[in-house]
Amino acid sequence: MVSKELLNLLNQAIAGELQASIQYMWQHIMWRGVKAFAVQAELEKIAIEEMKHAEAIAERLVYLGGTPTVTPAPISIGATLREMINFDREAEENTISLYKRIVKKAEEEGDIATSELFRDILKDEESHHDFFTSILEEV
Length: 139
What we know:
Layout: H1 4-30, H2 34-63, H3 81-108, H4 112-136
Helix pairs in contact: 1-2, 1-3, 2-4, 3-4
């Protein structure tokens, strides 16, 4: 049996994935100027990946007996390119930290499937973090 704490952590993860998906998609749409061309397509791609993460986590949560949240974490679009990317980098850092906690908690509870799911998603999140960190060096 999975703990209420782990179910709550999964819902936090869903809220974060929803937030990232909306935030990155809106940034993709709102960016203007020459520098935007270099990152708009990647932002759109990452936004879609984040929505797929939300779906996978929600499926796991339902399987474990929980109900997925429909409320995203607070969305921060930003007014400048640097501010947008800083918000995105910070969101990825928070996500990586949360997912490491989820992996540890799932393993403590013997929930190998949840642990493996989050280990896989962590690879994507670390790649996103690397992308945003690299972009910050250029703006």
